[in-house]
Write a structure and sequence with these properties.
about 10% helix
């Protein structure tokens, strides 16, 4: 008989989801828009998506029981925050995957699959002493309007595949993440009779993103990078005129153990707050 795996996922998993937490300069009147305005809007949305990747790493560890702040045996459940929800995962199937119930947050549907490894053998759950790596597959879909940007609507379609490797060679123990994913998102701003839309196609990569354990004491990645290769179709209309442009940008953040990290997008260098998802000080 197959077992079940219940885990708790805190509301912090998507602190600001894939929405911008800061004000976008791209929402002014008129159809005219500068390259810098487009870059600033792309930086805001890309930075938020990158911070969401960090949130997902925390949420996925909580789902598997691998978080250093809460260690769960298979079949157990516990809160990882005061507003946590419990996610139940059934399995494993013949390939070792646990399939978790879909959850909904701010209009976004989140689904995940989890697989455990003990060396080259499949595991049946998280074992603090024996689990060497964990595979994750996550999809996020839906739309919503950010509370801080009522004139903005975000549509999200995101699929990520990740592996977390346990490094016990030193003190503290490290959980090291690699992740690849694809985003097909849109963000629409409506103001002063003008609607501006950014249609994103993004290939994102997380490389050697290392968290020190316990996670509760070390919430931010100690090292590693997240890189997004972005193609954006920008459109604007006022009901009489329409314009469109396609731009490509490369965005990257480099982690250093703090909550505020540098974000490079095209020619812009900004600061990304991983806690709030706010992008600021773009120059």
């Amino acid at each position: 008989m197959r077992g079940s795996l219940s885990r708790s996922i805190g509301a912090a998993m998507l602190a600001c989801a894939v929405a911008a937490c800061s004000t976008d300069v791209s929402t002014g009147p008129g159809l005219g828009v500068t390259d810098r305005e487009i870059d600033r809007a792309i930086a805001t949305d890309a930075g938020d998506a990158m911070a969401t990747s960090v949130d997902l790493m925390l949420a996925d560890e909580s789902a598997s029981g691998a978080s250093g702040s809460v260690v769960l045996a298979p079949g157990a459940s516990a809160d990882v925050s005061s507003s946590a929800v419990t996610v139940t995962c059934g399995g494993p199937d013949d390939d070792g995957w646990f399939t978790c119930d879909r959850t909904t947050w701010r209009g976004l549907d989140v689904t995940r699959r989890i697989r455990f490894w003990e060396g080259t053998s499949l595991g049946t759950g998280w074992d603090p002493a024996a689990t060497d790596s964990v595979n994750h597959r996550v999809t996020i879909e839906g739309s919503f309007t950010p509370a801080l940007a009522p004139n903005k609507t975000v549509w999200v379609h995101r699929a990520d595949t990740a592996s977390m490797v346990v490094d016990r060679s030193g003190d503290p123990v490290l959980h090291v993440w690699s992740r690849v994913g694809v985003r097909a998102d849109s963000a629409t701003y409506a103001t002063a009779g003008t609607t501006r839309t950014f249609h994103y196609t993004v290939h994102d990569t997380a490389s050697a993103v290392a968290f020190a354990m316990p996670r509760a004491d070390h919430p931010w990645p100690m090292s590693g990078t997240v890189t997004h290769a972005i193609t954006t179709l920008f459109t604007a209309t006022d009901g009489r005129r329409d314009i469109s442009r396609t731009v490509t940008r490369r965005a990257m953040v480099t982690f250093d153990g703090t909550s505020t990290v540098p974000l490079d997008v095209g020619d812009l260098t900004c600061q990304l707050d991983l806690a709030t998802h706010d992008v600021s000080n773009c120059q």
